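Work Package 3 committed the consortium to producing structural models of liganded targets before the mid-term review. Because experimental data for this complex are still outstanding, the team generated a predictive model from sequence and the ligand definition alone, so that downstream docking and mutagenesis planning could proceed in parallel. The input record is reproduced below exactly as it was submitted to the modelling pipeline, together with the SMILES string for nicotinamide-adenine-dinucleotide.
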Amino acid sequence: MAIESFDIKDRSLAGAGALRVEWAAREMPVLKLIRKRFAEDKPLAGVSLGACLHVTTETANLVTTLVAGGAEVVLCASNPLSTQDDVAAALVAEGIPVFAIKGEDNKTYYRHIMSVLATGPQYTMDDGADLVSTLHTKKRQLLKGVRGGTEETTTGVIRLRNMARDRALAYPIIAVNDAQTKHFFDNRYGTGQSTIDGITRATNILWAGKRVVVCGYGWCGRGIARRAQGFGAHVIVTEVNPIAALEAVMDGYEVMPLLEAAKVGDVFITVTGDISVLNTPHFKLMKDGAILANTGHFNVEINITALEKLAKSKRRIRPFVEEYLFRDGRCLYLLGEGRLINLAAAEGHPASVMDMSFANQALCLEYLVKAGRKLKPDVYPVPEHIDREIGRLKLQSMGVVIDSLTPEQEKYLRGWVEGT
Ligand SMILES: NC(=O)c1ccc[n+]([C@@H]2O[C@H](COP(=O)([O-])OP(=O)(O)OC[C@H]3O[C@@H](n4cnc5c(N)ncnc54)[C@H](O)[C@@H]3O)[C@@H](O)[C@H]2O)c1
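The resulting structure, written out as tokens with the ligand in place, is given here.
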């Protein structure tokens, strides 16, 4: 793989980016341990990797870990608005080809994906499955050289499972999102905190006393609802899954149809992985001044085309805040062009939680390389021993000690004869 080119906003931002990457590294002790071992053992020697991830300080730490292990990595953004331009510059200064510019249009976004694919990677590391889907639709001739991949997020895993069901997936991919040390923590605590952070930075609203409507009570929705409540908001949850809705009720939130919530909400946050969750009928009912934000993977959860059609005019009133003025005099405020607000208007998840997500990525790539061509094309779970080891190391890094089973307890838990 001979890569010399890159496409980033400004190389002179490298110094500032490097400092922020160093700061994030302080909160990533598990990845640091992996990097140390990788640097000694070089388990990724000769491996070429095409990565499509949010270009953040945490991702930079992942990429340098993989490079320490011997991999050649080429990186593009997994969202047009999530790139941190200083981090992209810092990586380029380290000799890593990066194709990512914050605010790039859709055409550039896909051109950057194509630039990564043009290097003919043996492995893919994706967040949302745009790299994998482009590879399978527009660059099929490269598939024979690809040995495996990993996927970071819920939406990507859903797309990959759909590909596997349709027998369209050409190589094995590990669903990193489904590791317990990933979605229990990253989706819940990471998205919970950083979504509130993104909306706060974009608007500077006071959360206390606001009616916050969380659409989708999955792993991310649970975290957002809890954090909004912690700030003093009155949280309303909307769902389509009866069990998730029941959990929200028993967690103490109001649950109602979105058409009802639309009339009372001050802030709406979509996090479903679904399409057109907020749509024309809801926009028509919303109060003047309602704020609309999405933190699900794609910018399809809020029907922006419908919003544009309804509005008489629009203007940018603050960075990341678009004001839509309706004929009846109401205004609705769309944040971050409907793209995941925690990465568009803030810095994404804190490093401490990405430590576990990216430890999974690094160890799963190593696992795939070791497995060679043994795995058939399909979507695979993260091996349990990797998941548990990451949990153990994270606890250790936090100075938390737990108990272990006594021989008597181990025997009892394996048996079935002993009762009352
Ligand atoms: N912003 C981020 O940094 C970030 C981080 C992790 C995941 N994500 C993305 O967030 C989204 C949600 O992820 P998750 O892990 O919480 O998924 P999940 O599957 O755990 O939860 C999604 C929930 O949304 C509900 N839902 C689906 N359609 C709905 C509708 N029309 N109305 C109301 N509820 C609906 C589902 O029933 C489910 O309970 C995905 O797109 C994922 O990729 C974003």
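Reviewers should note the following from the model. Residues 153-155, 183, 187, 191, 215-221, 238-241, 244, 271-274, 277, 295-297, 340, 342 surround nicotinamide-adenine-dinucleotide (CB under 6 Å). These observations will guide the Year 2 experiments.
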